[in-house]
Amino acid sequence: MPIPNAYEQYKNSKVLTASPAELTLMLYEGCIKFCNIGKDACEHKDIEKANTNIIKAQKIIDYLRQTLDMKYPVAQDFENIYSYISQRLLEANIKKNREILEEILIHMRSVRDNWKEVMKKNGVASTML
CB under 8 Å to 126, separation ≥6 — which residues? Predict the structure, then answer.
């Protein structure tokens, strides 16, 4: 299976060569992806798939929270956002509620879009933009 292996190598290379800003963007994209999959799974009553993907989104948010550098004042703003999203992900998973996931998606898309703007303004080149 040379094609999947080549794709995995490409993905690994992309992560290993990304800047911290690009890695953060990748995490936002991953969280959005897993919330979308979880939302779809809730709609189709696939409890296991919903649970798995909501947990993946939770792990991303937990990681983002753990990596905040609290010496910067803006870090507290991100902590507040991530804390709220983490709480809502927990609720969404317990209730398997797609409306909560849609709310989370709105917030995460906004955070991602703002992050992209910050990257552009700071001249961070990214193939993801």
Answer: 19, 21, 22, 25, 119
The residues near 40 (Cβ < 8 Å, ≥ 6 apart) are none
Residue 24's alpha-carbon distances to 40, 52, 72, 99, 121, in angstroms, are 24, 22, 17, 25, 16
Q: What is the pLDDT along the chain (129 residues), one digit of tens a residue?
A: 566 776 566 556 667 789 999 999 999 999 999 999 999 999 999 999 999 999 999 999 999 999 999 999 999 999 999 999 999 999 999 999 999 999 999 999 999 999 999 999 998 765 554
Q: Could you give all domains of the chain from N- to C-terminal order, each with its CATH number? A: 20-119 (1.20.120.340)
pTM of this structure: 0.86
Name the E strands within 3-122: none
